[in-house]
Amino acid sequence: MRHMRLFAVLAALLLVFGQAQPTTAQHGGPDIGSLLQCERPNVTPPRCTSVGDNFRHYVYFDPSLTEELRSSLRDTMADDYDPTALFVREHPALTSQTDVVAFSADYGENGAAGWVYCPSDAPQGTNAQGDRWCRHQELHVNLNPRYAIYLNDEGSRAYVACHELGHTIGLRHWGNPPESAGPVAATCMNADTPDGPTDLSQAEIDHINAYPYAVRVRARNFEERAFGDPLPKTISSWPAGGVEALETERYASLAELTRAADAVVRARVMATERGRAFGDPDGYRLHYASLTLQVDQLIAGSLATDVVILELPLWGGPDSLPSIEASLPHGEVILFLRGKTDGPFYRLVTNDAAVVDAGGRAAVSGGPNPTLAELDGDAFADAVSEIRIAADEVLGAAARVAPGTPGA
Question: Of 366, 336, 358, whose CA–CA distance to 349 is shortest?
Answer without folding.
Answer: 336
